[in-house]
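@channel sequence for tomorrow's demo:
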Amino acid sequence: MSDRQAVFLINLLQDVNILRPLVFMAARDIGLATRILVTPQFHRRDRSGVWGQEIAEMSLATGTEVIFLKDSQQAIDLVQAQSGVLVAASESNLAAHKPIHDVFLQAPSTFLKVTVQHGYESVGLMQSREHDRAHGKKVEFAADVVCVWTAPFRLRSLMMSQHEKLYVTGPSAVLQMDRSNHNELEGLDRGLVCENLHSVRLNVSGDIKEDFLEVFHEFCFHQSLHSLGVTLRPHPGGQYVVKNQISLPENVTLNNNPIYKVDLRRYAYGISAPSSIIIDMILAGIPTAVWSDKGSVMDADNYDGLTRISTVSDWIEFAQEAKENPLSFLELQERFLQKLLMPTDPRHVYERYAKLFDPTIEIEC
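structure tokens (generated this afternoon):
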């Protein structure tokens, strides 16, 4: 066992998904003494208790100590006179990230401070117009290293002062995707629709949320005429349809499981407004479409090159074509990934992250 520690800071609900494979890597594969520090803000967000249970399961599986913090100062005190790697997935100078940012600012230099990109359009890296309006364009990180998903030239929101911190790793999600044979999953009819109606990008106009829900309900009605079901997946942090008690059609099943417990390959296709789940569905190898509002007010430029749909007739046509000719969509999606220069090979992604915990590891790519 090395004297170096791996300390993971969890603040947002989404942090669990992003950091989970790295906790397993540090604790089980590399053998570092590993701790998870959980902010009080996390507990206030975790109303259902689902994500707290996920942390408990992760702790049990890896032998990792979990500490529930009173405040940021407690975390700062815990890492004094120690060394290793300090890892977070929601760290910047934005208000929502302040609990982690404060820890990074005051942690001793004996720790390598690592911020992991937590979404495709992360603040400070690749923002939409709506993100620019909501958060501004001067997002900074207190980390020594910022792990990013794509080639640096794609990160048009990155401040020049932050460039030297970049380390292209690819998304940690590829480390926990099911890679087993799935021939038995062929011939599926059910589609997956993902909502992120809480997002700032859907607040740019008062009609956008209603536009999405109207099209979704009409699409589900059409599917019901053919005895077809639809699965709806709310954003893990936003939970808009749950919190607002939105009535759902009878042929809709809600899936609120953590994404690493969902086999996306079981769906014939996926539809979502601009969101990181689009990348998850593409990596899973299912035909994927990006929903845009009928007035094209919402910024979806970061998804250029992917299939776009807007009206209910678009949804119906896409769902049918995805089942009849999936290869045409998969080829389009592969070109999109290639354009991003995003590492997606699990072995290569693993090596890049592992080197942060063990500098002696050689990277072959």
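heads up for whoever presents: Residues 190 and 208 are 25 Å apart (CA to CA).
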